[in-house]
Write a structure and sequence with these properties.
The protein has 104 residues and is mainly α. It has helices at 8-14, 17-29, 35-50, 61-64, 76-89.
């Protein structure tokens, strides 16, 4: 619906599978329509404007959604493996010269 389509089938007819895969990859990096991030920020803003003047506690969005804002860290090897997988999935070539393209 956020993309302007009436249904999933309508959306599937309008875009290719490779474009859909790109949107899925993008959503994994930067979630689309993830309301929890907005709710956390709004809740923190409300609490901070309503707190007493004597309170030294400043609330953050992650105080209301523990664990949600934590980013998983990846090793360099994990990042390279993801790029290799996406490169292979989209028919790219490994131009580094030191590795062969992984097999399916």
């Amino acid at each position: 619906m956020a993309l302007g389509h009436r249904s999933v089938q309508d959306c599937q007819e309008a875009i290719s599978s490779s474009e859909f895969a790109e949107w899925v990859a993008y959503d994994n990096i930067e979630p689309i329509n993830d309301w929890s991030t907005y709710f956390g920020a709004v809740t923190a803003a409300i609490y901070n404007t309503m707190r007493s003047k004597r309170s030294d506690r400043v609330w953050k969005p992650e105080d209301f959604f523990p664990g949600f804002y934590e980013k998983a860290t990846q090793t360099t090897e994990e990042q390279i493996a993801i790029v290799e997988m996406l490169n292979y999935a989209f028919g790219g070539k490994d131009l580094r010269g030191n590795k062969e393209t992984p097999s399916a």
